[in-house]
Design a protein that fits this description.
Elements: E1 2-6, H1 10-21, E2 25-30, H2 34-43, E3 48-49, E4 61-64, H3 68-72, E5 82-88, E6 102-110, E7 126-130, H4 133-146, E8 150-152, H5 155-185, H6 194-203, H7 216-219, H8 222-231, H9 236-258
Parallel strand pairs: 1-2, 1-4, 2-3, 4-5, 5-6, 7-8
Antiparallel strand pairs: 6-7
């Protein structure tokens, strides 16, 4: 397929690279910043522009990979109507924001954390939706060429999965950040924890998370919890989260045991 990439950030870059790898032709890159558009255009071997008036009209799929706020405000910055199929890549934005941008439109949401500075492209589950059966079939065909995991998800389902991603990924990454700060403050090697983290994630592929819970909170080991909290006296944010999460874990498993 002939692809236009609108946007120049992480998602635009990774999806553009993936499209090239899978045999598609990126016919144009368009972005607000001329230098960024040029950089991505050269990477994807495609013409580039910083003018939305110059978007070509002979592509099959137009991937609008911009921020959630920008795609929600698309009527104020996209001055033309797209003639092919327009898809945005946002998890928390309705497909209907594109109703005046194109006659055929939908969503191509990568349920993955994408970084343009990573050489290897990770596995990318794609959640798709469209305003018509014909558009959905075309988006499905394109998505299936990029990923072995393609799922139809309407606005409500996609929003809920986006929420799940924030909780499971963004929140845990914040805990990793605080733990790295703690280790740095105590002159400890955070990398010693990486095998533990890898093992925990691998277990999720085989077992329900609730059956894999370990630690002092599930054992109601108040002595260890108290010792840990004393070690965190100079790290008030982490201390507060430790106490709150420990209490929540204990309550959750006590309720399970009570039946």
């Amino acid at each position: 397929m002939r692809i236009v990439i609108i946007g120049t950030g992480n998602t635009a870059t990774v999806l553009g690279r993936k499209a090239l790898q899978c045999g598609h032709q990126v016919v144009q890159v368009v972005g607000r910043n001329a230098a960024h558009a040029q950089t991505l255009g050269l990477l994807l071997q495609a013409p580039y522009s910083d003018s939305f008036y110059e978007i070509t009209d002979d592509a099959d799929i137009y991937i609008i990979a911009v921020s959630d706020a920008a795609v929600s405000d698309i009527e104020n910055w996209l001055p033309i109507q797209i003639k092919g199929i327009a898809v945005h890549t946002a998890g928390a934005v309705s497909k209907s924001v594109l109703k005046n941008a194109a006659g055929s439109y939908g969503v191509l949401y990568p349920l993955q954390s994408l970084r343009s500075d990573r050489h290897a492209i990770p596995e990318i589950p794609l959640l798709i939706d469209a305003n018509s059966p014909g558009a959905l079939q075309s988006i499905q065909t394109f998505a299936a060429s990029l990923s072995g995991k393609v799922y139809c998800a309407d606005d409500d389902e996609r929003m809920k999965l986006h929420l799940g991603a924030v909780i499971a990924n963004n929140f845990t990454n914040y805990l990793y950040t605080l733990t790295q700060d703690f280790c740095a403050g105590e002159s400890l090697d955070f990398s010693l924890l990486l095998p533990l983290l890898h093992e925990t994630v691998q277990r999720l592929e085989q077992y329900p998370a609730r059956l894999m819970q370990t630690g002092p909170a599930i054992r109601n080991d108040r002595d260890t919890i108290a010792k840990h909290l004393s070690l965190l006296k100079d790290f008030p944010v982490l201390s507060g989260l430790y106490a709150q999460l420990s209490g929540s874990i204990s309550a959750y498993y006590n309720e399970l045991q009570a039946g």
